[in-house]
Amino acid sequence: xxxxxxxxxxxxxxxxxxxxxxxxxxxxxxxxxxxxxxxxxxxxxxxxxxxxxxxxxxxxxxxxxxxxxxxxxxxxxxxxxxxxxxxxxxxxxxxxxxxxxxxxxxxxxxxxxxxxxxxxxxxxxxxxxxxxxxxxxxxxxxxxxxxxxxxxxxxxxxxxxxxxxxxxxxxxxxxxxxxxxxxxxxxxxxxxxxxxxxxxxxxxxxxxxxxxxxxxxxxxxxxxxxxxxxxxxxxxxxxxxxxxxxxxxxxxxxxxxxxxxxxxxxxxxxxxxxxxxxxxxxxxxxxxxxxxxxxxxxxxxxxxxxxxxxxxxxxxxxxxxxxxxxxxxxxxxxxxxxxxxxxxxxxxxxxxxxxxxxxxxxxxxxxxxxxxxxxxxxxxxxxxxxxxxxxxxxxxxxxxxxxxxxxxxxxxxxxxxxxxxxxxxxxxxxxxxxxxxxxxxxxxxxxxxxxxxxxxxxxxxxxxxxxxx
Length: 469
What we know:
It contains 13 helices and 13 strands.
């Protein structure tokens, strides 16, 4: 819960007690509490803003204000039975009103631990050389949105950007994907990031290494924004892709919202399952390569929408990372593109990856981070172990983690483990664990920092949940 929400719930409880406990039944005390609650409520609505989870508290406050006013004016006297009934109703409203904001909090992104502040910008890209394979229009070309996080030198007093644009549209889409009522995530528009929109890039004596992120099936470019901000705060430029039609949604700069197309991932029993998943992951991999092409062109020209950031990119030090479908896509992209110098796969889905890649492995250093739930010995896990054995790769398995612990879903609700959306490992453990593992890996393999082994030993001591093979 947010600070003013906590204060408001406390004042509401105090008002309830002042109407129940005879010793506290003092008109002046009740008036003082009601007036204070009114001020706090106004501040809450202005600073923190309304959200539906607080409706029971808002309603209860209005009832108490009206009751206080009626008693002051001598308009009503409550007998014992009515007072008991109101007390019971107030207690129920307080319990519900305190529980809802706690169960469905405004997501709060962890503060990046690096020394640098973070800026962000989003860009629209169109691949005029590539037909859009996921529509029936022969004239369609592949369109993408990307978002970039980078070390920033923001203007003092700059406000941080919201986590999601168009949250009024996107909240219900997230809820439906999680098979929850559509209104449950109306409040995500209140979630702030740690990034300043269009902040100037921080000056540096050398260009920054570049990391490109590919999300999983029904992910989106901000789905792991905590990781992107964490890496940017340590001196990386992070580029995250919305894989249109595979993403849960893509919000284009002209206001269009393109939702996910479920038919692109058919049931495993469907006759077209294998070619469909191979096309899906290959499209993701081609998206990654196209983004690298765009960064290369922008760096060479130094102008255009990406030019300002690209001038500060070190394209000789490019790393890729991804989750699930996107993790498999970066394996394929790295097998094809020597610009990739290192990769991190999070619960890497390699069933659709080409057999030749599994058999020959990848040349670049790789870190495969696996949730305990995906270390199941089933076909995908077997293919991943074969790929790892044929590559320069490490494996890190997180005890107590589930597939969605690699994205921001653990921050949505403490009920996430009960809903099967995360493992029993607390979000406060798994989030810094993943951040630190990736930072050590990329610092070692992109920056060539010499203390990688010592940092990994310290990491193993700090995070016994992580098993490193």
